[in-house]
Structures are given as C-alpha cells and as structure tokens.
Design goal:
The complex is a heterotrimer of chains A (about 350), B (about 300) and C (about 325).
Chain A (H helix, E strand, L loop, with lengths): L2 E14 L2 E14 L3 E5 L6 H8 L8 E3 L4 E4 L2 E2 L5 H11 E4 L13 H12 L4 H14 L5 H4 L9 H13 L5 E5 L7 H18 L2 E6 L2 H4 L5 E6 L2 E7 H7 L3 H8 L49 E5 L2 E4 L13 H4 L7
Parallel strand pairs in A: 3-9, 3-10, 7-8, 8-9
Antiparallel strand pairs in A: 1-2, 1-4, 1-5, 5-6, 10-11, 11-13, 12-13
Helix pairs in contact in A: 3-4, 4-6, 6-7
Chain B lengths: L15 H6 L7 H11 L1 H24 L30 H37 L1 H16 L2 H12 L4 H28 L2 H8 L4 H37 L11 H9 L6 H29 L6
Chain C lengths: L3 E13 L5 E13 L3 E5 L6 H8 L7 E6 L2 E2 L5 H10 E4 L13 H12 L4 H14 L16 H13 L5 E5 L7 H18 L2 E5 L3 H7 L2 E6 L2 E7 H6 L4 H8 L8 H4 L30 H5 L5 E4 L2 E3 L15
Parallel strand pairs in C: 3-8, 3-9, 6-7, 7-8
Antiparallel strand pairs in C: 1-2, 1-4, 4-5, 9-10, 10-12, 11-12
Classes of the chains: A alpha/beta (about 350), B mainly alpha (about 300), C alpha/beta (about 325).
Chain lengths: ~350, ~300, ~325
C-alpha cells in the first residue's frame, strides 16, 4: 500500500488572554491511498483542529502549529510549503468539505462559477471546458438537471444540495485525499443517509482517501476502514471499525458506545452517562486526561500519562488498564451484552 | 515500565471533587473587556488624553490665576508669554483660562446631549422592537418624519420660541430630533436580541413585558449603546461649536470652543494663536472620543471573547 | 379522573410568507398527551414540530384550533388565568447558548419564574435555587456564576432548573439534547427521566434524534410538513412503521454497528423536502412517495386508527397496515 499522508507529533495551540489552549497534543497517524479514516470525539477534542492543520488552514497569530509537528503529504513537507505550493496542495492534492454548507459557499456567485473557479485555477482549463467539467461534476454528485442547476445561486438550493455542491468543488480537481469535517451534522437524517451513500460511492469509484471528522459513531460504523477516537487533543484509541465497535479497550470509547440507546435498551431505562465534563485544554496534563471522569481510574492514572500499547494487529490504545499489573475489568458496555465477534 | 508498584493499580474510581476543580481561572466579562481595551494602545492613549482634558477643564481655570471674563487692559491681543500662557484675546482676556471654561460648556453639551439621546432612544427603540407589528410601524414612521426635519431649523425655532440661547436651549434643540438615530439603532439591536431563546423563556414564565425589556433587552444592548454614545459625543461637540460659530449657540459673556473660534476668526491673519487653541481642543477631543469608541467596540464585542 | 392532560384539536399555525403566501407551519394537528407520559415528536427540520410545541404553550397565538389543558381551553385565557397556565406548562430550549441571558447570574436566571409566581423572600428564594441546582445535579455555588462560565451540558441543566422552578406539570422539551455532545446527551436524558419519575411530569419531547426519542417516549408522533402522519407507541413505531415516510425515516437512522448494513435493505427517499410555503396538494408526502396514486393528489388523508392505538394518515394503508402497490 502506498502511504499518502503522515502526521507526526502534531501540536496546535491557540493563544487567548487566559493562556495558551493546547488543542492538539501530539497526534501522529498515517493514511494510505484510498483508505477511509474517521476521527471521532466530542466537541473540543481537537478533531477539527487536526483536520484544519493538515490543510494548513489555521490562522496565525491566534493559532500556532508547534515546531515539533511534522506533516508529510506523499514526499512533500506541508509545514515548509510556500504560499504558492500551499495553494496547489489545497486544491489539487487535498479537498475539504465543511460542516455548514450555508456559509462555505459564496452567496453572490452561481454554483457553476464556484466550481469553475477552482478548475480554472488548478487544472488550467479555459472557460468553456471548465463549465462542461462543472456540469459533469454536478452529475457526479447526483444533482438532477445539472445543466440548469449550474446557474443557480446557493440560496436556491436546499441544505443537502449545497453539501453536494461542496463535495463537487472539493472533488473537482480529483484530489487524492478528501477531508470531510462533520459533513452531515447540519443535515437531517434522510439527507445524511443520502450524503453518506454518495461519499461511499465516490470513494469506491475514484479511490480517494477520506478523512472523516465526526462526533457520531453511528455515521462511521459502516463507512470507515479505520477509526481514531480522540479525547482532550490526543488519540486515545485507534483500530479498524470492527476493533473499535466490538473490542473497544478504552473506558472512554466504552462510554461513547454505551451512551447511545440501542434498539434493545429498556424504554426509559438509565443510559450510561459519563460524569463531569472534558478537561480544560489550557491546563498542562501529565497524567491520563480521562482520569477524572473514569470509573476505572487507578492511582497511576493520576500520575503518569499512559503509553500507547498494541492490543493486536492495528488496534492500539492509551490506557493503564492494558498494563500487565492492572486488574481485568468488565466494562459497563460489555455487561450490556454486546455481541462478541471472533 | 515493569517497576511500577502494584498498589498504583488499585481502582479508585471517580473522585467527585477533582472533576469540578479542573476548570480554568474565570475571567469576568468586564475584566476581560478591560484587558482587551488596555492592550489597544491607541484607545488607551485616547483614554488618558481625555482624562487629562477633563482634569484640566476642572482645575485649569484656577492655574493661570485669571478669571475667564477678567480683562487685562495692559495686554490686549498679547502673544503667548510667561504671563499669559496661551496669550490674550482682543479684550485682553486670558485665553488659557477661557479655553478650559469653554471646555466645560462644550464637554457638558457633548456628553449630556449624547446621554439624553441614548436614554430616550433606548426606551423608544426598545418599545418599538418588543411589541413589533403595528406599534413598531407607527413608531418608526414617526422617527422617519422627525429625522427628515433639518436640525438647523429646529434650533432656530427653539431659540426664537424660548427667547434664550443658553446651554439648556442648545441641548434641548439638539436632542429633540437627535434621539431618532439612536432609537433606530437600538431597535435593530433589540430585534436581534428578541429572537434569542432566553426572551422566549421569560415569556413562557409569564414575566411582564416591561420587565423583559428592563431585565433582558436593555442590559444586553448596553455595551453596543455605550460604544455608540462614545461615537456620538464628538458629533455633539462639533454641532455645538458649529452653532456657536455661526452665532446660533452660546452667547457672550458665556463662552465655548465654538464661540472662541468664531471671535478669533476675524483676526485670524494677525493673531493665529487665538484660533489655534480652541480649534486644537475641538479636534483633539473629537479625535480622542472617536478612537476610544473604536477601541471600546473591539473590546466589548462578545464575538472576540475566547 | 380524566387521564388526558392535553388535548390538541385541529391546531393550525400559519405565518405570512410574503407575496400573499402563507407558511403552514402547523396544519390541522390533532393529538392528546396523557398525564405522566412522554409524547415524542419527530420529523426533519422545518416540519413544524418546534412551532407546534410553542403554539401549545401559547407562545404563539394559534391561527385556528384548540388546545385544551386539563379540561380548559387555553386560547381565550388572559391575565391571571394565563399566568396560572404558564406556571403549569414550561419549556426547555434547544440551544444552551442562546437560552440563558449572558448578563444574569445562574441564580437570577433560575429565580426569574419564582419572582413572577411565588412570593418568596430572599432567604427562601436562595434556598429554593440551591435545591433546584442540586436536583439537576449541580453544586449550589454555581448560583453566583454567569452562563458563559458553564459548559453546554451544565447550561442545559440550568435551563431545566429554570423550568422546574415554578413546579410545572407539563414541560415541552424542544430539542433539548441536539446541541450537546453524545456523553452529555445521556446525562441530560437520564436527568429528564429521573425528574419525570420523581415529580410525575408530562413531557412533549421534540427531537430529530430518533433513537433518543424512542428511548424516552411512551408514544411517538411523526410530523411531515406541518402534519402529523403517524402516531403510536414508541416500540411499535420502530418495529412496525406504517407510513411510507416513517419507514424511510427509520431506515435512515445510522446504526453503530459495522456489520449491520448488509442484512437490511435501505430505503432511499426521492428528492428533498418541498418548501412548506408551496406544500403539495392532498397528501403532502406524495411527491416523494413511491406508492403515490391519483387519490393522494386529490384528498388529504385523515389520521385514522389502523390497529389499536396506531394512527396513520395514508390512503394506501390497508387494515393489514401494508401498502398495496397500485401501478
């Protein structure tokens, strides 16, 4: 397999009056060609910031990517790119879709022009070719009447359609990597299903690698190849979808899985709920960030940061429960009777 | 990794206290705004300069040892010197003393005018925005009519009707239509706030309309109103100066920066300093208020809070 | 004693939409809510579920129809009577950020309702605020803090405490968990269920999160473009949805199971929700429905009881409850 993206020890800080908010704290991962990777976590866990950092979309001076961080796209060092290289990188190599399709389109331009803009810039097409290509792209994202729709303004389209247009723009230069930042959060369930199906089809047809950022485990379950669960700016567990859903090892992942009602949960029965709130990212943390909310917290958890340990295959977890001296615990999640897969 | 003592692996479970403790030191709204204002060098400098001007307006006249209407027959149209720091005018009155006395009038009119307009405008705009519908339409049409009346005419009519040209008449004449812009501004602000869910929550609780305006809508527009007052003050100061300059404002022996500039204008070619000092004061004060307003707007903007 | 707390009859709420058009946000909705039960109301954005909840509380004046609360028609209520109703029926909002006044302390926010309805002195008032904060799982010393110092979940708890402060019987929960993180959602839902048990509250739970609605509700109503299309017990609606729209909605719920999808056939829905200003004639769902025939364009389907306690508004639902496909 061909590796297309490698992120090493990514650290991002935001400067505020109260102090530096360390939003991403040493995230490392790799992405292979055509692979789908999901970042899952709650708001403020650093998943969106990581995605934006890969695109170099964070604005200095408020946000700062620390010097130790390394982002390699194929053989190019993203951190050292010049303005011009970045521009080519953003359109040609990596495309991005945002959460809110309303604000990410320019309301005063037709959608056709907005797609053509990037085609003319990156693929050096002339106006006529670009227009034809734009119509073709609208067909690819399954917008009916593409020839007519190409002259519509964003406000004439519904939310789902706008998100399709965003996908068309992101894919127009056939990037090898697509970053989707909560692409369905602002949409209704039926539209969400449509968009996810579209992304799935496109992934197969074009062999595009996708980084999907979301808070909803349900969305990624049958979409992502690999899942990385983030908490307080760190990846606390990673593995294939099956490993995460059926053999989760981190108490936080258990909680995420158990706090959503299942079809067989008793009506009005108590849901598993984490206590407290995530830690403030202004604080330095030299112990497990989840320790304060963890039912299985041990003495060591409040003293030392756990190292990432290999469970098996691609499944890694950062938790002291994996230490040979730690007690074996059965999670609330397992008690609930999740079927085991062998 | 193997030498961690086994006791460290006892499950201790949740610790309720530590859960709550892990939050950042709280920075209050005003403190946060103040910190942001202080970081803005231009705004801070303006604030200090304004403070100096206000201080001098209060104690300045005492420093020179001359009363503002006192005539020194030995030194008419004297240039600035050790005796008269800013020189004297054609009657031999000390310009240093007069500049600060004039400042009292100009600043009073500026601040008072802006404040009165803000109060009337807030109440009027608040009522129009809260009740909406027909009430809003009627109230806003009235405002539009009032705004279209040229204020010079209003001032002339007022000084004729009231047979006086004192500070009060001037303030009255300027605020009688001046609140209209503020009312429009406040209405727009409040319409935005009206859609916030806490207003709906108060209505669901059965809180009376006037209390909703008083407790929720006014406090939440206050910061933008303060900014707009700061921007309005220089306008009033200039209006006063302009009216006095063309002879519709403050009358001698009372004085203001506008009056001083007006009387100095006839001898400008011979004694430029007589115009220079009041003109600089007008310009400086207006500039300071505008720059301060700029800084306040940035500092109080909740969108910039992190 | 009559078991119905709320009866909504033919409720309509229209908004003028410019150019002489009307937006029928709520269009002839009939429903009843029994004492102590939770009625879930689901539907996609713009289907009128929020407007429906607010009109029931008389925050919006209904265009037509009646809301009968505890045997009394509330549309004509004024002054003291209206205040009495407001004390008994409260609301919790979706957005924990815009629903709390940023310039007031938490204590003041919670006490706002008490100041209107109860004559407490300062000591009683403080005690009550502390008690309420405890009952929603927060410490008393939060009373002196401001809303921006709290997290989303804490803010939503304050919103719940504000509603509870006047000891209501009925609470409209208007998407109370949509803006919260997954782990916090569970906290808030557990709290709502706990409070219902302790205080015998009746909820109208509005949400687009179907799995949460199923979890918390006794019965569920599905809305589409201002109309109620199906209503039945919460287990039943997931197990045997009858209306074509409900079927699509149910199949669109993402399942947190990587292997779940292969077995089940996914229903795809055509196109997107039409504008409520120009809603289709007859059955509003017909433009996207694969069973639609001529009758669907001509007649508005009535909500009728197909099996016991299971109401559906569809021309093609036979007694068996299955659509007959007429070509």
């Amino acid at each position: 397999m061909e590796k297309i993206l490698e992120v090493n020890n990514l650290q991002v800080s935001f400067h505020t009056y109260a102090g530096d908010v360390k939003a991403v704290r040493g995230v490392s991962f790799e992405l292979e060609k055509g692979e789908t990777l999901a970042f899952v976590g709650e708001s403020g866990c650093g998943k969106t910031v990581t995605a934006k950092a890969i695109m170099r979309l964070l604005q200095p001076p408020f946000a700062e990517i620390k010097k130790e961080s390394k982002i390699m796209y194929q053989d190019k060092d993203v951190m050292k790119m010049s303005k011009k290289e970045l521009q080519a990188y953003r359109g040609n190599d990596v495309g991005m879709i945002f959460q809110d399709p309303m604000t990410s389109l320019n309301p005063t331009m037709t959608i056709g022009k907005q797609i053509m803009e990037s085609l003319m810039l990156h693929r050096k097409l002339d106006k006529k070719q670009a227009r034809e290509e734009a119509i073709e792209m609208l067909r690819v994202v399954k917008i009916s009447d593409a020839e007519k729709r190409v002259d519509d303004y964003p406000h004439q389209l519904s939310g789902g359609m706008r998100q399709r247009v965003m996908i068309a723009i992101a894919l127009s230069c056939n990037p090898a990597l697509l970053i989707a930042d909560e692409p369905t959060t602002a949409l209704d369930v039926t539209i969400q299903a449509q968009i996810m199906r579209l992304l799935g089809d496109l992934k197969k047809e074009r062999d595009t690698a996708i980084i999907l950022v979301t808070h909803d485990l349900g969305v990624v379950a049958n979409f992502a190849d690999r899942i990385q669960v983030m908490y307080a700016g760190q990846i606390i567990e990673r593995g294939t979808a099956k490993e995460i859903f059926y053999h989760a090892k981190h108490p936080y992942t258990w909680a995420l899985l158990a706090s959503v009602p299942k079809l067989d949960t008793e009506n009005k029965g108590e849901l598993y709920a984490l206590k407290g709130t995530p830690p403030d990212l202004i604080l330095e943390m030299n112990h497990c960030p989840f320790a304060d909310r963890c039912e299985y917290c041990m003495g060591i958890c409040r003293e030392t940061m756990p190292e990432e340990t290999l469970v098996d295959g691609t499944h890694r977890v950062s938790c002291w429960l994996q230490h040979p001296s730690a007690p074996r615990v059965q999670s609330y999640y397992e008690k609930c009777g999740v079927r085991e897969h062998e | 990794m193997q030498n961690i003592p086994i006791e460290k692996f006892q499950i201790t479970g949740l610790n309720e206290n530590s859960m709550e403790a892990a939050s950042r030191p709280q920075v209050g709204y005003l403190r946060d705004a103040w910190m942001r204002l202080r970081k803005n060098k231009v705004a801070t400098a303006s604030l200090i300069l304004l403070f100096v001007i206000v201080l001098m307006v209060m104690i300045g006249p005492k420093l020179s040892g001359y009363a503002f209407e006192q005539i020194d027959k030995t030194a008419r149209n004297a240039a600035p010197c050790a005796k008269h720091w800013f020189g004297t005018d054609k009657l031999g009155r000390d310009i240093f003393a007069r500049v600060w006395i004039s400042g009292r009038v100009s600043l009073t009119i500026g601040v008072l005018g802006a404040l009165i307009c803000a109060v009337i405008g807030c109440i009027y705009g608040g009522i129009a925005a809260y009740f909406g519908g027909a009430v809003d339409t009627v109230m806003m049409r009235i405002v539009e009519i009032l705004i279209s009346v040229p204020y010079l005419i209003v001032v002339i009519v007022f000084s004729l009707v009231l047979q006086s040209k004192g500070i009060l008449t001037l303030i009255l004449a300027m605020t009688i239509t001046g609140w209209c812009t503020m009312a429009r501004f406040v209405r727009a602000q409040m319409l935005a706030i009206k859609n916030e869910e806490y207003i709906l929550a108060a209505q669901a609780l059965g809180v009376r309309p006037w209390k909703v305006i008083l407790r929720h809508m006014i406090p939440n527009t206050l910061s933008t109103v303060i900014v707009s007052i700061t921007f309005d003050i220089p306008g009033y100061i200039f209006s006063e100066a302009f009216l006095s300059y063309i002879g519709l404002g403050i009358q001698p022996p009372n004085t203001s920066w506008g009056v001083m500039a007006s009387s100095a204008q006839s001898v400008f070619t011979f004694y430029p300093y007589q115009l220079f000092f009041p003109a600089v004061m007008i310009a400086l004060t207006m500039l300071c208020f505008t720059l301060l307003g700029d800084g306040l707007r940035d500092a109080l903007d909740p969108k910039l809070r992190k | 004693m009559n078991n119905q707390l709320i009866e909504v009859k033919d409720l309509c709420k229209y908004f003028p939409a410019g150019k002489g058009n009307t937006l029928k946000a709520v269009d002839h909705v009939n429903l009843t809510i029994n004492r102590g039960e939770t009625l879930g109301l689901v539907g996609e954005s713009g289907c009128g579920k929020t407007t429906c909840g607010r009109t029931i509380l008389k925050l919006y004046q209904p265009t037509a129809g009646q809301v009968i609360f505890d045997g009394k028609d509330i549309s004509g209520l004024k002054g003291k009577e209206l205040l009495k109703f407001k004390k008994r029926a409260q609301i919790i909002f979706q957005d924990p950020y815009s629903s709390l006044d940023p310039r007031m302390t938490i204590g003041e926010i919670i006490a706002e309702g008490m100041d209107v309805h109860c004559n407490y002195n300062k000591k009683e008032r403080d005690a009550k605020v502390a008690e309420l904060l405890n009952s929603v799982g927060m410490k008393e010393d939060y009373a002196n803090r401001f809303a921006h110092e709290l997290s989303g979940g804490q803010r939503q708890r304050v919103g719940i405490a504000r509603a509870l402060a006047v000891d209501p019987d009925f609470i409209v929960c208007d998407e109370p968990i949509s803006a919260l993180d997954v782990s916090i959602q569970a906290q808030v839902v557990n709290l709502l269920i706990k409070l219902q048990r302790e205080r015998g509250l009746t909820y109208l739970f509005i949400s687009h999160d179907l799995s949460m609605v199923r979890h918390i509700s006794d019965r569920v109503g599905v809305m589409y473009l201002g109309s109620l299309v199906e209503m039945t017990g919460s287990g039943e609606i997931f197990a045997h949805p009858l209306h074509p729209y409900t079927k699509v909605l149910m199949s669109a719920i993402p399942v947190a199971d990587p292997e779940a999808n292969g077995s089940e056939e996914e229903l795809e829905i055509k196109g997107e929700v039409p504008s409520p200003v120009h809603a289709p004639s007859g059955c509003k769902f017909r433009t996207r429905c694969s069973y639609a025939t001529d009758i669907c364009a001509q007649e508005v389907p009535e909500l009728r009881e197909v099996t016991e306690g299971h109401f559906v508004a569809c021309h093609h639902c036979g007694e068996s409850g299955e659509q007959q496909k007429n070509a």
